Amino acid sequence: MIKVENLWVELNGNLILEDISLEIKKGEIVAIVGPNGGGKTTLIRTILGFIKPTKGRVLIDGKEPKDYIKSGKVGYLPQKSSYERDFPVSALDVVMFGLVEVKISKKEKEKKALEVLRYVGMESFKDKPFGKLSGGQQQRVMIARAIISEPELLILDEPSTGVDVVAQESFYEFIKKLNQEKGITVLMITHDIGAVGSFVHKVVGLNKKLHYFGDFKDFLQKSNVDKLYGSEVKLLIHSPECFTCQYFNVEVKRH
Amino acid sequence: MSLSDFFTIPFLVNALVGGVLIAILLSVLSLFVFVKKWSFINIGISHAAFGGLAIGFFLGVNPTITGSLFAILVGVLIGYISKKGQVHEDISIGILLSFSMALGVVVMSFSNNYNSDLFAFLFGNILTITQQDIIMILVFSVISLGFLLYNLERIMYCCFDEELAYISKVNTKFFYYSLITLIAIATVLSIKLVGSVLSSAMIILPAAVSSQLFWKYKSIILASIFISVVVVFTGIVVSFQYNLPSGSTIVIIYSLIFFIVILVKRLFIR
Fold first, then answer.
1. What is the ipTM for the molecules in this complex?
2. Domains, chain A, ranges and CATH?
């Protein structure tokens, strides 16, 4: 579905991405991890066509990103913890924005918007000012907006920003459900490697260069993590069976 | 003089009709200036319009046309610079604003009626609104309002988040520059009403007041139109009755309403 070939990106004279090549298949959930400033957001913004590669190319379903976006099959959740508090729109307005170029009646749009709001558990907030919702609630509304057009590809930039731990758990459950029920390909940036480990199909370890691209299990090898973050780090792993977590260094211990 | 007598004086009727029409258009545009936080861009555009008007006046070309072209050029330039992010928006507006004003004053200094012309451009003279002006304002208002209302959701989506709107297939560049163009032309058309110095107030105040009373954008538009029409109408009548400058009277009434609404909200609504 997404093919990144020998991608180099330079911004204001700084090399941000160096020779990245990877391929993401349809229906996969892929997590992009790596230290801050490692080029994660630049990579997804290049995939979305917001940034022009210095060298190399990105193809989505064999098309240039700009052409693929014109098909309306992309859902995108940018990295943003909160919007302007006084922006004069309701949660329902925001979700309906996602259908603004879809040629169906206003009534049908509203019906669809209510459906997706129900799907993300936010139906009762439909008439509330969007800016006054909490970070987690805004994030759910934004995800409803991203999926209302029934995208084939969902790109999420740190979706758990501003979301508390409990909401994070249910948010990731929701992403998993979306992938399983609708077959949506999901590409997401996260710092929460432990929390997403139980359901992602692949991990992209990025720090200017592609340090790792493969299964989550193999990614957890100490050498991979150390190589990516540049020093010895401890990861907090959430087991899918319980809410308690444990520290690990070399291997994951579950209880 | 009773209110009904006003409608028997042709230039006052022109002033009222022209004033109300432009007030409606500025009220709708006001929402976008408010949500995009474009107050300063608008001030830049209105000062640029002054430079353009002066050039047109000096060259003997219709000042509305030169003023509009100049305002659009400066508006698009500010938009382009702020989008590219090479120079900070505040700096580019500050420089273009001062340049346009300086250019306008220098050009106006060649005119024989330097002081009176300069004063009219800076502070407006609603009583000089002609029937030709009204037709121009009417045609432009109908086209602009049709465009804005038909694309209301698209433009609001662009204002909310331009990148998300782009992903949803909205032609964001087109709406961005269309909005700047409409604001520029509407600003020029409002100069006879309130002058270039005060015209930005007429586009900033409507949504600033209405957003204190309502939080949904459609309600803000309706309230802005209602309040603006009442204020412009009252301002013209009061200024004529007491021989005051109409533009300044309108802006003072509008600003007072803003402060009263803020005060009442602070005192009674927590």
1. 0.85
2. 1-73+151-220 (3.40.50.300), 83-150 (no CATH)
